[in-house]
Write a sequence for this structure.
C-alpha cells in the first residue's frame, strides 16, 4: 500500500548534512539524526525502520561524515569534505519546501 506522504527527493547525504549543520554543534548521535529526520520528513515516521540502516550505511561509507570518538554522545559530525555543496543545496531546498521552521539555523 502506498503511503499518502511522499518520500523526500533528497539523498541521505543531503538530509544528514542538513540536520548536522542545523544542530548548532555540528555533531549528533545516530539516534538524534533519526529523530531530526523523522521530525523534518513525515515520510520516515510512517515507514518501518529499514531507512535507518540505510542512513547508518551511508554515513559509514561516505567521506562527508566521521565518527567522533571516544565521545559516544557526539557520535557523528560532518568532515566538511565534499559536503559543502549539500549544505548550500539543503538551505535552498528547506526554504523552498517550508522546512526552515524545523531547521531555523539553516534559514
Amino acid at each position: 500500500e502506498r503511503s499518502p506522504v511522499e518520500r523526500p527527493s533528497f539523498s541521505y547525504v543531503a538530509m544528514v548534512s542538513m540536520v548536522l549543520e542545523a544542530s548548532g554543534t555540528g555533531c549528533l548521535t545516530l539516534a538524534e539524526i533519526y529523530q531530526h529526520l523523522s521530525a523534518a520528513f513525515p515520510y520516515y515516521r510512517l515507514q518501518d525502520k529499514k531507512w535507518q540502516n540505510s542512513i547508518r550505511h551511508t554515513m559509514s561509507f561516505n567521506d562527508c561524515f566521521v565518527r567522533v570518538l571516544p565521545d559516544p554522545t557526539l557520535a557523528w559530525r560532518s568532515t566538511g569534505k565534499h559536503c559543502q555543496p549539500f549544505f548550500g543545496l539543503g538551505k535552498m531546498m528547506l526554504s523552498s519546501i517550508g522546512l526552515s521552521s524545523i531547521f531555523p539555523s539553516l534559514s
Remarks:
- DSSP finds five helices and three strands in the chain.
- The chain has a mean pLDDT of 74.
- Residues 19 and 95 are 14 Å apart (CA to CA).
- Strands lie at 27-28, 65-67, 76-78.
